[in-house]
Amino acid sequence: MITSLNIRNFVIVEHLELELPMGFTALTGQTGAGKSILIDALQLLFGARSDTEFIRQGCDKSDLSASFSVSPEIKEWLDDRELDNGEEELIIRRTLDISGKSRAWINGYPSTLAQLKDLSSLLVLIHGQHAHQSLLRRGAQLQMLDASSVPNSSR
């Protein structure tokens, strides 16, 4: 469960500290309110490709971080990769600099984008306004059926 998001010098945001309460979180607001900027920041924290266009104009780098409460599944994932810091909180951080370099950390340990992507599947589900359209793809329908099928033990 995400507990906080911190953004510095990202797109048009100079500095944002967002504390999120436990439970379901939905981002809503008018067009232009900044919802997409928050989603872009989360996606970068979870291993999306970076671009210098994300760095706020006039700045040398962007700094993004998020904190999450640690479930047993996440703790096991961290333990298996020797990334557990012994805390009840997981911290992911990523920086982007003007030269195009990107660096990432999980609990203060340098990490790869592949690790961020792998970890993200345990942390959040991001659904956009057109996510339901994926149901129209034949492959998506088959995936859902395969995922929900339970083997018949009587055979």
Could you explain how this protein is built, in words?
This protein is of the alpha+beta class and 155 residues long. 27% of the residues lie in helices and 26% in strands. The protein has 4 helices and 6 strands, in the order ββαβαβββαα. It has helices at 35-45, 72-80, 113-123, 138-148; strands at 2-10, 13-19, 61-69, 89-97, 102-106, 109-110. A 6-stranded antiparallel beta sheet has the order 2-1-3-4-5-6, with helices on one face. A hairpin with a 4-residue loop joins β4 (89-97) and β5 (102-106). The longest helix has 11 residues, at 35-45. It is globular, with a radius of gyration of 18 Å. The termini are far apart. 17% of the residues are buried. The mean pLDDT is 87.
Give the class from helix and strand content and strand pairing: alpha+beta
Percentage of residues in strands: 25-35%
How much helix, percentage-wise, in residues? Answer: 25-40%
Report the strand count. 6
* Measured distance between first and last alpha carbons: 40 Å
CA radius of gyration is 18 Å
From N to C, what is the helix and strand string? Answer: EEHEHEEEHH
